[in-house]
Amino acid sequence: MKLLPPLKSALYVCVDDDAGHRSRLEAILGDDIVIAAPAGAEKLEAAEVGSHLSLFWIDEGGRVALPVRLEHISGSPERWRLRPLSEPQRIGRREHLRGGGGEKMRISTLAAQPAITFDSTLLDLSEKALRCWAPASDIAEGEELHIQVMLSTGILSQIGTVTIVRDDPDGFGQQIVVKFRQLATPTVQMIRRYLFAWEGTRRRNQERASAEPSTVAGAG
């Protein structure tokens, strides 16, 4: 099977629409693959033999996704045997992926003493930067800010530099782009899991929307 990562590589298991649970590729057995039980497996009530799951991992070309069926759970330490339901699919180069949004944020200035803190809203996010909405303020390009936002995969708390400040198209407030300093690996993985879950939900919504007209026509 093409695109599978090397043995012992990290990958993530997605159950329903969640953001992914860290695992590791242990073996390839014929048509099946074997992985370590994902982190927090004991809490994954929806993951039972016969259920459909999704795997994803990151390689030099970006993110790769693979739909699978859980065939067997055994061993100590626990191992999951999975049956791929299709070939792995490359779903985007990581340096270009940007999405998500809607979460409430807190922004604090670093230049002013004492710091000025205000509420904001995340508009979209990548591994390099985020774009947010904020009330009109005196924030300028080049200024450093501390941002904090609760994602579905964890708390993103970082210092970054303002690269763009522009009026919001709706005429109220501003849109601010903040470029991060170099992120630690766990933070990058957290953002990737968040974007993967967001993209999966968006793709399913698009598929449902495109199927609705044909369903209505068939009923007529």
Automatic annotation (TrEMBL):
Pfam families: PilZ. Residues 93-197 form the PilZ domain. It comes from the Bacteria. GO terms for molecular function: cyclic-di-GMP binding. This is PilZ domain-containing protein.
